[in-house]
Amino acid sequence: MTGNLLFLNGRVLTMDRQHPRATAVAIRNGLVAAVGTDAEAREAVPAGTEAIDLGGRTATPGLNDAHAHPMSVGFAALDLDLGNPPHERISDLVALVKQETRTHPAGEWIVGRGYDQARLAEQRHPTRHDLDAVSPDHPVVLIRVCHHIVVANSRALALAGITAATPHPDGGVIDRDEHGEPTGVLRESASSLVRNKIGAPTERQMVAALERGGRAFLERGITSAVEAGIYRAEEMHAYQTLHRAGKLPIRTYLMMMIDETLDALAQLGIRTGFGDAGLRIGPAKLFSDGSIGGRTARMRRPYEGEAENVGLWMMDPDNLKAKVLRAHRAGFQVGIHAIGDAAIDLVLDAYEEAMLTDPRPDPRHRVEHCSIVDAATIRRIARLGAIPIPGTSFLYYVRDAYLQNLGPDRIRYAYAMKTFADHGIVAPASSDAPVVPTNAMVGIQTMVTRRDRNGEPVWPEEAIGLDDALRAYTVAGAYASFEEGIKGTLTPGMLGDVAVFETDLEAVEPDGLSEVRVDLTVRDGAVVYARPSA
């Protein structure tokens, strides 16, 4: 019967503090009907219900990625991968571009994603000069892993009309050489000058990307995610098309860009929470700053070795505060990208002023990424009831860039899950995929070990246990979308979303958690992903 399923003989981690462990779960009509012993679960579903013997494997609630870009994950699969395997030199990236030109007609754009200059021998970004020799007939754009910096070759710069005379756009920088000529490196809003020339995908292409991206999340046991930026009506249409057809792979909480969507939504009376368990309007979103790896996150103090560089504001601070107040008054939860400590200060100022001006209960305003904080800022987050959305995989993948750009002391409380918990702060885990891979187990391993991909420690004082790391990927994510009443735990009445891992997670050495595979992903009591040969 559709929506009915039994899991037996397992290690069920319910995420319910009152009943944290069980051996079985019964799902009836798409909802959890019973959690307990095998016998108790069997009694809760009709005779003949399909039963899956877990054989001691771990089952958890379906995982929730609190900040990602599912559509971009789908599109990224079509682009040149500059991050895997890790490349050692700029010449490695250039060789990939050269190879790509052989399969693209002249004049067609070549887009690559995922390089990190901190991991290259040259310790710098590629430039147009590096790319021009192998791509005279193709416009080329290489996107840094953070997606806040791009490198364009000369043909792409020409199509975008970028010359020595082109001024820096608001919230962006065009890097120039000693002669004032563009190097091809475009930071923050300056990257849009080139990106806009590539052309927007069609709605049909967006639907295909969502299906492809959604499958990537399901393969990792993720049944819910936040889409961290809806800009265009066509993007919303693509989500609705799949949702109406019952084909949207994962439950999605949509962050709506304030400048592009707030006025239309507010005029219709639509606010955070509109929708259903499959597709729901989430926060109104803004950007306050950039990234650490690109040295554009707004800091209180300069970056290492650059006495004049404290990063960038994406907009005038007073303008940001005004936009936050508009969204708050319209009934929206607000989520603002803020990575640097100065940017986080500004965001918290904006939230506090909005709540004082127009008090309303429990707005749960969010600080997306919330990377560089100190103890005083953490106490302020707790006092305001704000929700940090830490990128728990970032330290695993880009610790090198954090250390090079900020030094060790300023990252003491980066993604400080233990200190957040000590202050009673709900901190949902996120990947920001495709910035880093969708694999939630990387984030969970990093929370448990506080070590990067090379095994180097990153303030191990902030390590937490496996249960709490899983809770960050389940209960906390549900709370951040006001959905803790319907998902995040395996308790009767909750949605029948389950992730089944290939082994007993509690028996795995912490440094091996990232290698654990998902065998089954279940949504509404139906298997939506099964690992081949599992």
TrEMBL record:
SUPFAM superfamilies in the record, alphabetically? Composite domain of metallo-dependent hydrolases, Metallo-dependent hydrolases
| One Pfam entry name | Amidohydro_3
Q: Which Gene3D superfamilies match?
A: 3.10.310.70, Metal-dependent hydrolases (3.20.20.140), Urease, subunit C, domain 1 (2.30.40.10)
* InterPro entries linked: Amidohydro_3, Metal-dep_hydrolase_composite, Metal_Hydrolase, YtcJ-like
Q: Taking every annotated instance into account, which residue ranges of this chain make up the domain Amidohydrolase?
A: 50-529
One of the entry's Gene Ontology molecular-function terms is: hydrolase activity, acting on carbon-nitrogen (but not peptide) bonds
| This protein's name | Exoenzymes regulatory protein AepA in lipid-linked oligosaccharide synthesis cluster
Q: Which organism is it from?
A: uncultured Thermomicrobiales bacterium
